[in-house]
Amino acid sequence: MKISKEKFGQSFDALTADYQIIAPIADVNGVNYQVVKNFSEVKQDYLNSKLPPKSFLFPQHEKLLSYKKEGKDVIVKNELKVGKTVLFGIRPCDAKGMLLLDKVFKNDAYTDPYYFERRDNTVVIGVACNKIAPTCFCSSMGISPSSSEGSDIFLIDLGDSYQVEAVTEKGKAIAASLVELVELTTEEQAQVDTIKNAQTTSKVDVATITSKLGTMFNHAYWDTLQEKCIGCNACSFSCPTCHCFDISEEVRKNEGTRVRTWDGCMSPLFTLHGSGHNPRNKHEARWRQRMMHKFNYFVQNNGDIACVGCGRCIKSCPVNLDIRQAIDGVNKAELVVE
Amino acid sequence: MEQNPYIPIKMRLAKNLVETEDRNINTFTLEFLNKEDEENFKYMPGQFAELSAFGYGEAPFGIATSPTEPGVLKFSVAKVGCVSNALHLMEEGTMVGVRGPMGNYYPLEEFKGKNLVIIGGGFAFTTLRSLAVYMLDEKHRGDYGDITVIYGARNPGLLLYKDELAEWENNPNINLVTTIDRPAEGWTKHVGFIPSITEQIAPSSVDTYAVVCGPPAMIKFTLPVLEKLNFPPERIYTSLEMRMKCGLGICGRCNIGTEYVCKDGPVFSMAQLKELPNEY
Predict the structure, then answer these.
(1) Least CB-CB distance to B277: which of A110, A217, A260?
(2) What stretches of chain A adopt beta strand conformation (E)?
(3) What is the ipTM of this complex?
(4) Is the CB of A112 less than 8 angstroms away from the CB of B59?
(5) Residue A19 and residue A178 in contact, taking contact as beta carbons nearer than 8 Å
(6) What are the pLDDT digits (tens) for B186-232?
(7) Span B125-130, mean pLDDT?
């Protein structure tokens, strides 16, 4: 079934009454997800946003609590406030990224209330990629440019209209509010089939990377891999699955807030102990951690590789380190019997 | 929704005791303000908690009390960073935030019916004190065999819990061995580093578990001694220290391989550690 973009736009605008809508818009920094009020603001023809939409579930900076000191006493206030949100125009790589973050923010012992309050109140409207960037390699990661996994509603852009697929119960409820859904024409069906069959041209082989990495903790490969890296963490911050954070305090006189902010394993301070000891004091150890976490530890703990092939880390790296080459390097590294 | 694990419960600093001669380690006695919080705070020896000094931040510390000592929690903390300095300077009566208990604990069920050798160095003795006090409690003492404690510090003034150590010396339920690194005036007990004193005491490894906690160098040199005494890696336990923030296995800071020290640890057997990457 499809809906004309004109009709879709009307439904979209109507949704703003109940939801905060986040959608891709073009600004001086490229295309990014921001709050929009009107469908006409939405950028529809784009390869991928500069930053992933993870920040709407896991903000770069968020208040956990605030407090006020009164003499020796302290009044603490929970700062968890969440409204209903629609994330529109989410690419399949990012939608899958959210499914992976779900696994991080809920483990066998704890559920992160800040993440899940947002997650539970968020509807994801995904859109298939009609164009594929040279840095995209989602097809290698078991995703495709037209994969609906992770979306509540999934759209395929047919020019003047969208093909609509309601994927989850949450998505069906929203889809029900879309009026004038009509059948696709034969030509449009052919267009849909072409988009659905598309794959990324850039590919990497991750078939054996998890087991190979399991043998490579002490491999000399890490020494060469990290040589160019300046440890800026741009890769982590632009990654839809990276989720490490710091907790710190912002204080003014007797009042303060406890905040959490994105952090990344490329920083030497990330693991520095109070005693001065640092278990990952060398850059090679931090690169190893990045690769191991994404392609081995995460797989062991959660059953998936923590990379969705969005290519942002490749685009954002100031020294042109390419995770596809890093993966190739692991594949080609000589096996060492320890 | 279940309780928000990032919001600390409030406790009051009842006592801020200078523990060591160098005034670098204080023991904080925190009182529960709320009966319900006390009932919900169910912990076991080996666990830790995140303490908030409001205005400075939060940091993880091992719990020095045993669950057999209700009403308060004690933490012995060295003055090394922002939060620990703030705690050291804190006036009695001030409110402190506490999140926890966190992490796993010493496998006390597994220890039942066995002898225990508890080896501690420096101020890492905190959770070992918790363990010893728990086992010495009359409700539990019958569950365990011989309890030997080998505890060392650089000099006599740096030993923690001096009153309690004096009491244990005369307690037939526990065999206490204290040592200092170099001879000191008035010191009549052992002199020497923990590994050599352990070798000298040579506790039997038959039906015995060893729990080791201390600075990395002490652990590094004590383990070969235990191996020489025929302690298998499955019967040696230790606690790891990492830079932890959330304490919930989420923030990604303290992982060693697939394990998160804050959630899957801090207590690990040497057999487990042999399976993990050497990155701690």
Answers:
(1) A217
(2) 2-4, 20-27, 30-36, 61-70, 73-78, 85-90, 122-127, 153-157, 161-166, 245-252, 255-262
(3) 0.91
(4) no
(5) no
(6) 999 999 999 999 999 999 999 999 999 988 889 889 999 999 999 99
(7) 95
